[in-house]
Design a protein that fits this description.
Elements (H helix, E strand, L loop, with lengths): L12 H11 L6 H14 L3 H7 L5 H9 L7 H8 L1 H5 L1 H8 L3 E3 L8 E2 L6 H10 L1 E6 L3 E6 L2 H9 L2 H8 L6 E5 L1 H10 L3 H11 L1 E2 L8 H13 L5 E6 L5 E7 L2 E3 L6 E3 L1 H14 L13 E9 L2 E11 L10 E8 L15 H11 L4 E6 L6 H16 L5 E5 L10 E4 L6 H8 L6 E4 L5 H11 L4 E6 L4 H11 L5 H7 E13 L8 E2 L3 H13 L10 E2 L16 E12 L2 H8 L5 H4 L7 H10 L11
Parallel strand pairs: 1-5, 4-5, 6-11, 14-18, 14-19, 15-16, 15-17, 17-18
Antiparallel strand pairs: 2-3, 3-4, 7-8, 7-13, 8-9, 8-10, 11-12, 12-13, 19-22, 20-21
Helix pairs in contact: 1-2, 2-7, 3-4, 17-18, 20-22
């Protein structure tokens, strides 16, 4: 919960920087900056005020409890016994109020197990003290405890007792972290799991990695710019040996700010090989002869971003230099609760999602091409499920990899696409109420999803297809033939979506005009070809033919995107049609509660977008 303006306390950036430096960070991620600011604020508040500020208890309930608090009970201890959320956050409150950093998730901060944790004596010491020795930013040792009381016990211990750690890491920082994570890391130390942590460390791109290369520093600056405006960075090799770099902004490819960005042949080779090696796609540095992919975390003073990397050689053997097409998909990995209302989802679509999310079992699919917002909508649906049931339901996701952190669900990052199905089968033994699958991509995963959807689990996933009708048919062809009837019974809701570019609020002043005969004919022809019955609006946005400079949209007339949806609730009638093979638009189509084109036309009539967004 975000505090109100009355509760907010201003903290200077200088104070935050000093706090993170005292914790041992050189380039702290955004979550650490927020934690430092919160720590400074909490140090200036009474315990009860801190509990309210963190959103763990309303003011009136806190006041009522404090009135009945016995004189011999500590405030936080007393509040913890009456409010489970306060009890769960006890260690975090104590740490931050004492100026000690708290880690909700060590791994996602780029912290890795210290190599010396493989030593038996240190590992036994950490097991006894319930702590783990890690490395921040590859260099700074940090001793992280799972409980505040264990850290306090360590600080009060004699010098001889603390020397086990100090002899290895004399200048280590202190922290408190998620106790489950600390226990897992201690158990994994010295095993193959530590190798995974070392791999994660190698996949962390820090400013120190590029300080000796002008080409890499230049490209890192572009990533800093792209963080705030783009979903993808595309490196396209040219026959001249150069590389052209473009950004995908609001679904469209465009040059970066400042005009075309060209890499020289030498820069192109250096940048693409560095990225391929850093993301784990090509660890040997040898010439790439087949498609490969990987992932990395990029961190700089501009922030932190998770990057999925795809590398494809265009002409593996036909040139003397690398011709690598590289796509960098940018994901901001902050844990933020997403509301379906905040996504500009229409009320009827939200209501369809609410009904489906209220079921105890079933299969909900979000369908569409890559980069159309499906994962964001699923995050919103999980938020809706949390609103409906709170912590009374168990939620687990399996993803490759985890692209965004979603509150209210345990997220599992599958190390390989090949392990998707085995992971899925394993997590069902945890008896989750809701299972989120990043994508149904093979027969085994599809079969398991259907079985789960019929046996007391609500399954939510994505599928690559054009619309709900094609999507359900594609899934039916993917699974075993004897499970198709089970699929139709499990399915509860099919939602297809796209992203429509929205007009720039600064450039477009709201003027409307009547559509031309040519536009009407083009629209009617498109509607007839796609079996859609819909009326052209009487008024559509009137755009100026004049090009002008705009600091918001940079003169292209668009600034942002809005989702458009097609919804097919899988009612009993729809299930029966599917069971007899009626996959055609004439039969299934009339059961859609809205279509993509209809959604787009609503935005056109509201002056939010142009007719171009209708032709999907």
């Amino acid at each position: 919960m975000i505090e109100s303006e009355e509760q907010a306390t201003y903290v200077s950036s200088e104070a935050v920087q000093l706090a993170t430096e005292s914790w041992g960070w050189i380039t702290p991620p955004e979550s650490i900056l927020r934690a430092a600011e919160l720590s400074i604020q909490l140090q200036n508040l009474m315990v009860g005020e801190a509990v309210v500020k963190l959103g763990l208890m309303p003011e009136d309930k806190k006041n009522a409890l404090l009135k009945s608090k016995p004189a011999d009970r500590q405030t936080l201890d007393w509040l913890s016994t009456h409010e489970p959320q306060v009890k769960a956050a006890f260690d975090k409150i104590m740490a931050l109020r004492d100026g000690i950093q708290y880690f909700d998730d060590l791994h996602n901060l780029g912290i890795v197990v210290h190599p010396d944790m493989k030593k038996l004596n240190l590992r036994r010491y950490c097991e006894e003290k319930r702590c783990v020795l890690g490395l921040m930013e590859q260099t700074k040792p940090v001793l992280c405890f799972g409980k505040w009381e264990d850290l306090e016990r360590y600080r009060m211990a004699g010098r001889a007792e603390r020397n086990e750690v100090k002899n290895i890491a004399p200048n280590h920082a202190l922290a408190v972290g998620n106790p489950q994570r600390v226990t897992e890391w201690v158990a994994a130390a010295g095993s193959a799991s530590t190798e995974l942590d070392e791999t994660a460390q190698k996949n962390l791109w820090l400013p120190t990695d590029t300080r000796d290369s002008e080409a890499l520093r230049k490209f890192a600056t572009l990533i800093d710019v792209a963080m705030s405006m783009a979903s993808d960075i595309d490196i396209n090799p040219l026959r001249s040996g150069q590389g052209r770099v473009m950004l995908r902004v609001n679904t469209k490819m465009q040059d970066p700010p400042g005009g075309p960005y060209l890499l020289s042949p030498e820069e192109l080779t250096e940048v693409t090989r560095f990225i391929a090696k850093k993301c784990g796609a090509n660890t040997t540095g040898a010439r790439i002869l087949k498609p490969c992919d990987g992932q990395l975390i990029y961190r700089s003073s501009a922030g932190e971003i998770f990057i999925r990397v795809s590398v494809i050689p265009l002409d593996p053997g036909g040139t003397s230099y690398d011709m690598l097409s590289v796509d960098l998909r940018l994901h901001k990995r902050r844990e933020v609760a997403i509301s379906l209302h905040s996504l500009n989802m229409q009320p009827d679509v939200i209501e369809s999602c609410r009904k489906a999310a209220a079921y105890s079992q079933g299969l909900i699919l979000f369908i569409g091409p890559t980069n159309t917002g499906k994962s964001t909508s699923i995050a919103g649906l999980i938020g809706l499920h949390v609103d409906l049931f709170g912590d009374s339901r168990k939620r687990i996701s399996i993803e490759h990899p985890v692209e965004r952190f979603v509150p209210g669900i345990k997220q599992i990052s599958v190390p390989s696409k090949d392990l998707f199905a085995p992971y899925f089968e394993s997590i069902l033994r945890h008896d989750p109420d809701l299972v989120m699958i990043g994508e149904i991509r093979d027969q085994q995963t599809a079969n398991t999803a259907v079985d789960a959807g019929l046996s007391g689990h609500l399954v939510v996933s994505t599928l690559h297809a054009n619309d709900p009708i094609i999507g359900i048919r594609r899934l039916a062809n993917m699974i075993q033939e004897d499970k198709r009837f089970d699929l139709y019974e499990a399915a509860t809701l099919l939602v297809s979506q796209r992203l429509a570019m929205t007009l720039c609020d600064k450039c477009y002043q709201g003027a409307m005009r009547k559509p031309t005969e040519q536009e009407i004919d083009k629209f009617n022809e498109y509607a007839a070809d796609n079996g859609i019955t819909i009326k052209m609006p009487d008024g559509i946005p009137k755009l100026s033919d004049e090009r002008h400079e705009c600091d918001v949209c940079r003169g292209n007339g668009y600034n942002g995107v809005m989702p458009i949806f097609e919804v097919l609730p899988v009612t009993r009638t729809v299930k029966d049609l599917l069971a007899i093979g009626k996959f055609d638009y004439q039969n299934l189509g009339k059961h859609r509660t809205r279509t993509l084109v209809g959604s787009a036309m609503e935005l056109v009539a509201l002056g939010k977008t142009t007719l171009d967004s209708v032709f999907i």
